[in-house]
Amino acid sequence: MAGRRALRSGSPVVPLLPRRAFLAGLTLATLTTGAASACGRSSPVGREAAGPGSLSVGAIPDQDPEVLQRLYGTVADSLSAALDLDVAYTPVTDYGAAVSLFRTGDLDLVWFGGLTGVQARLQTPGATTIAQRDVDADFHSVFVVQSATGLAASDDLRPLAGLRFTYGAETSTSGRLMPAWFLQQAGVDPQGFPGGPAFSGSHDATLQLVASGSYQAGVLNEQVWAARTAEGAVDPSVVAYARTPGYPDYHWLLGPRAADLAGPLRDFFTGLRADDPADAAVLDLFGAGSFVPARASDYDRIEQIGRELGLVT
Amino acid sequence: MTVRLGAATVLDDVDLTVGAGERVALAGASGAGKSTLLGVVNGTVPPSGGSVRVLGADPAALRGAALRRLRARVGTVHQHLELAGALRVVHEVNAGRLGSWPALRAAWSLVRPQGVADVVAALEQVGLADRVFDRTDALSGGQRQRVAVARVLVQRPDLVLADEPASALDPVLTERVLGLLAGPADRGGALLAALHDPALALRHCDRVVGLAAGRVVLDAPAAALTVADLAALYGTAA
Amino acid sequence: MTALLARPAAAVPRLRRDRRRWAWGLAALAAVCWSATGALDGVNPAGAAQFGAFAAAALSPALDGAFLGVLATAALVTVAYAVLGTALAVLLGALGAVAAARSTWGRRRLGRLATRGVLAVPRGLHEAVWGLLLVNVLGLDPWVGVLAIGLPYGAVTATVFGALLDEVPRGPYEALRAAGAGRLAAALYGLLPRAAGGLLSYACYRLECAVRSAVVLGLVGAGGLGYQLSLSFGSLRWPQVWSAVYALALLCLAADVAGRAVRRRLAAPRRRAGVLSRDRVLTAAVLGTLVAGAWSWWFLALSPASLVSARAREQAGFVLRAAWPPSADGDLLRSVAAAAVVTVQTSVLAVVLAAVGAVLVAGVAARPAGRCSPLRRLAGVLVRLGLLLLRAVPAPVWALVLLFVLLPGVLPGAVALGVYTLGVLGRLAAEAVEEADAGPRAALTALGAHPAGGWLYGVAPLVAGPVLAYALYRWEVTVRDTLLVGLLGAGGLGALLASELAAFDWPAVATVLTATVVLTLAVDLVGDRARRALR
Fold this sequence. Notes:
heterotrimer, A: alpha/beta, D-Maltodextrin-Binding Protein, domain 2, 6-stranded mixed sheet, B: 238 residues, alpha/beta, Rossmann fold, 6 strands, 36% helix, transport (chain C), transmembrane helix (chain C)
């Protein structure tokens, strides 16, 4: 608005630049631009120079970005050493961005959830499913409630229907898709919570929002729940209510640009041994005993449920 | 009432007393210091030296409610009127009573105008009663000047200060407005008016004070003066 | 005189209200009440502890060297986006201005309407939405940030530049044409010099806005300060969040102060008679901007080739093919309608909160004209600083934090946007008070008015008009921002867009985007009409 006011006051002619100064500026601009194109500077926001011998690793931001940064930093170092590649980790802000950037080829190797993996694979011809953790074939979610609701742990999901409820990210498998599916199976409309369900964005955020009481119930990945409980980081007012049956979840997906690395990568992950200290560091960070090979067909059930709930089109 | 000033440029060492019941005209060329003198009396211009006594009190010694009570007894028709413009006439006139109204009543009056009958009566006297609910900025210059006069009328001050209060009015209205502004003086108050028109000053005032370059150069009863005496103040022959 | 007195006493006229204003006033009141019904869910006192933890961290921002280094780089990225985005916008604006100007089309109204329609589309989408769409085409490329600012800003700039050109007197241009000059030459010598001040001033204002937009783009993943803020927020590290907020505040303050200084100079140039003198400040500002543009280009390592690369073409093709035709599914249309209602309610509440707050703080925030006590001066400085902080924190961050203490629904988004808009509107209202004529108030003080009374009768009437006009204008902006807040977690069309994007349901995305453009256009139209009724 202030600008408009200045305009209305009908400001007269602006003194033009001194020609010499202008020319100097212009020359400087041309020179620096030329220099930039010449030396092929890599952008502080773009991907690293993507050539053969480089691999860009990403992950869905399902938990604390700081933890992810540490986790995937370690993975990248380990991969880099084992396969003799330039490996860089690129953090992303949301699940959808991970899928989009996989499709555009900015991310080559991504740690996807079940649903995001399916989305990414369907949008990216030539994508290969590499491996999953031993725990991923039979993964679980935990429904949590505010202790103020007075609900005691139970297998009956119906009492949740009347509570203000938050999922994790919209396309999280363990924080949205499968819990919604199991709610539907139990006769609860997964979109029908009072005021509509919320999407906290991540498992940790779900815990915080339920602890604050803004939401009375929520659902998150069992692994995160167990880890936070073990750390003592869970607010005592948040209690576990129910555990879902098992379903397949996380896996590594490889993009078409690096398709020839599928074999070595699969060997690398499945070859990680808990008794080797360096390997154990990686396995520990992933909360896994080992990695096992995975195939696209392992996630057919996720795809089918995704289609039913309108999350895969 | 004494005004003693040391303001270097505008008013210089002016000493002036206006007594009860007096109607005093201030005369002088533009820039002689008439408006400044009026401003010093009503408190809008802080004097740089000397002392001012208004209605027997020293405004500089008063604070808060007491100062406001004193100021409520001084009504001014400003040279530039100083109306908000974006208000209806009724509110502009009612603003004359802000000295006696508590803040809440003032606020409520903007929603439901208070004392409309008094306002209409005052406007009636200046011939504007039919415009009471019009927006002030929709009025002509002369009409706005009459709104400012009506504001002083509802204020019912003891001392009236007027700075060219009839500059935009026709002769009939000019007579009328000056008569209205002299009302308080007739009831034991006083009128101090800056007037350009010598004939007007002589007709409506008992005494004329002439200013030139911030100094008093003339102070005489109106009866002893002619139009030509005053015209000399403006540097022109009558 | 006797003739006047002889007239019978006039009957008191009835209080007549301006029908058009009253209609708008009543409509506004109804809209506010209707919006308030959407926000009846109230507060959640239990979340005060979490909110307290956030607020307490304000005093202990993260100051470790490594993090500050990250922030510094991020701030540079944000500045680079802002500078290049504005440069692109000015370029597009200059080209589009000719097409948007009334004078270009003369009597051919259809052509002008068509141009306006074309320009309305990029303008109707928030920069963040552009960012999200562009990420899907260009991937991780600095062009995303530059284009996301440059395209919508370019459309606005073209409209404003067009209007500025229309305002310039045509005499000199016609004279040059009559003397045989070509169209371009005549425009260069006859039109441009007269319009240059306005054009430059507006470009400068756009640069200020671009800094804020660049921050917001970061929140949706485009890099820069907003990106660091969102990462820190994701890990709920409040001290780091506050460090980022302070960095933002500094950046916004710098843009604010520099922009205003330059625009003031433009509005009132200093010149000496007879000497061809140049204003050093202005020359430095223009040169500095040019250098900053070149540096930004180098820093972001922009490469025009990536815009037309095979990959970009392929991805654009993918998205466009997938999005056509837009979905016309009944369920989707119903949820679009419901979401549009929430969006409007949120924006109305936000602006009402902001306007009321702005009126309350304007008096204190305004720099007093004359002498005043040190206490009053201190209060003014504190309030102005507070307003700066309010507008430095992006609205989505407010919304996410407020989710801890407000129950989900319209309220968190509305309060968040209200708080942010208060930061903007408070400053504008304070400026209106500073610029208002001091005479009426002094006159009222002279007749003994209570300070509150003097303010009500002497200041409020003068500033009510401009402040209301600003509020309406901010409402138009707030509707766009509501989308952004929704995109990052609160309700409304933004939330719907986020979930369709998450499901990669491109036909539905196309529908929601269309609804968004239509809604923002409708709001612009209503706001424009209401502002005209105010005049």
